[in-house]
Amino acid sequence: MCGPLGIGRQDVLEMLDELARLTTLAEGSPQSFRVRAYESARHGLEGDGRDPTQLSASELTAIRGVGKSTAAKIREFVDTGSVAKLDGLRAEFPPSVVELSRIPEWVRKRSG
Questions:
Q1: Is a pLDDT exceeding 60 seen at residue 106?
Q2: Which member of 31, 58, 65, 90 lies 3.0 to 4.6 Å from 40 by CB, making a disulfide possible if both were Cys?
Q3: What CATH number does the domain containing 74 carry?
């Protein structure tokens, strides 16, 4: 199933992955609270059999690992096709920077 804008379960999971990746760059640590929250939400949604695009924010928060803020971002994504937080991070970190961040030495130099 898909949400009203054709957004499906996999799109939501990919959005959470991108949020975690870009937040890691913004905060300089893959262990930050926000990064872990996005990763936990993704794992929780993977373990839950329901389609997140069909769930309300309160139903999303009932899934282990999904907090209020992340549930709101999921609903924002499903309802509008974008997430303001993610749009801001994309502007701050263009694709070339994201690709460079996949090189372990670059990440250590940037955060250290």
A1: no
A2: 65
A3: 1.10.150.110
